[in-house]
Amino acid sequence: MKIFIRIFFVLLFIVVVGLIFAGNYFYNYAVVPSEKSFLESDTPGTKVKKSADQEWFEQATGRTDWHLTAEDGLKLRAIYIPSDSPSTKTALVVHGYMGKADTMAAYAKMYHDMGYNVLVPDARGHGQSEGDYIGFGWHERRDMVGWIDEIIQKNGSDETITLFGISMGAATVMMTAGEPLPKNVVSIVEDCGYASVNEELTYQLKELFGLPAFPLIPVTSLVTKVRANYFFGEADVVKQLHKNQLPILFIHGDADTFVPFHMLDEVYEATNGPKEKWVVPGAEHAKSYAVDPEQYRQKVKAFLEKYN
């Protein structure tokens, strides 16, 4: 009997060590900022007119760096570009997974052409912002609240603010919608955001490795709580949207296989505010702008004119 007990505990120890190793491996693979072999870019839509938009973004009149200290002490950076003529409208433009501010040049230009000031942050762990992990929108939602406060402080109490994000940036602005926000925030536009981190990582684990969610997702979530102070289950866009009353325009390409197209309905049904959705035929992940930039601009402009 004793030998069987010993064998049991040895096997249990091996399993536990193996799970801890696997959890840390997947944490490093998905949560630690680094070059990712499994994606070109989370904001490939910016390839449309990249040269012209990038040149404008780098040389825009009045461009300045803004800085923010996050609630946990990280030093964050954003790029601010004022409208060509005085404006009390600002678009907070949020990049996706492993992007950075300048990958959002096309979208920043789109809002700027509509007469908006634009503020484009480097998310924590990206670009010139500090951080050694990716929050998948959960920690970043609080960073966005900080940037919103910064906009109001610098531009005045009559400023109206639109939140815009692509993919993880879209999930970020939707999670931000569930936070107590000042009345200055008047609308949200999200493009191909996921419904929850658990659901997205479960999908990616199956797509990339052919593995089920259990036990790796729960174990990696525990590792993430220890190393980055959040469980995957906390980062739930749907739950945050249940608390939202702001108008949202939902955009998603029906050929998206990175953030599955069916997640559009999950987030659309979750919100309690005014809402519209636009499905872009044939658009893959984050390529809706690339597929039809003119209609993209028209859809966004028409939506914003209703609420801004």
Automatic annotation (TrEMBL):
Keywords: Membrane, Transmembrane, Transmembrane helix. Residues 73-214 form the Xaa-Pro dipeptidyl-peptidase-like domain. InterPro entries: AB_hydrolase_fold, DNA-binding_regulatory, Xaa-Pro-like_dom. Pfam families: Peptidase_S15. The chain crosses the membrane at residues 7-27. GO terms for molecular function: hydrolase activity. This is X-Pro dipeptidyl-peptidase. It comes from Enterococcus sulfureus ATCC 49903.
